[in-house]
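User: Design a sequence. Structure:
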């Protein structure tokens, strides 16, 4: 059983990172995915803002989940490159990450992600990725 099927059957706990970070799956399919997460005090950096790696990790998970919805049997992915622009900081509330596949080829896929405020939709970060498509 593949990752997508296990997520549908069992839910977020299939992914240990989702469980540890208390990430909720909002939806996924057809090259798109959406995840949400509550900002907790232990996620803040020394200046009192959400640590940048949390934005990157949540966007990375949303983008990878979006890409998994388009993989064929036997295909896997590995990140080649990832760039994140940090636009606005938060220190409370819920954040939402969306991932969208731009193009999936036979060997390389491109996808973008955004993290926004769950309260008002303010853009917090934008991520651009490329993945190697392996197998098949």
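Assistant: Done.
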């Amino acid at each position: 059983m593949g990752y997508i099927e296990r997520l549908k059957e069992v839910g977020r706990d299939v992914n240990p990172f989702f469980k540890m970070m208390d990430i909720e799956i909002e939806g996924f399919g057809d090259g798109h995915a959406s995840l949400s997460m509550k900002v907790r005090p232990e996620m803040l950096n020394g200046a009192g803002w959400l640590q940048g790696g949390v934005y990157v990790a949540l966007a990375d998970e949303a983008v990878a989940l979006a890409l998994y919805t388009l993989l064929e049997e036997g295909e896997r992915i590995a990140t080649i490159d990832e760039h994140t622009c940090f636009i606005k900081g938060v220190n409370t509330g819920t954040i939402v990450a969306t991932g969208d596949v731009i193009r999936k080829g036979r060997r390389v896929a491109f996808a973008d992600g955004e993290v926004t405020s769950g309260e008002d939709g303010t853009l917090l970060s934008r991520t651009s990725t490329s993945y190697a498509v392996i197998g098949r």
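The two ends are 16 Å apart (CA to CA). The mean pLDDT is 97.
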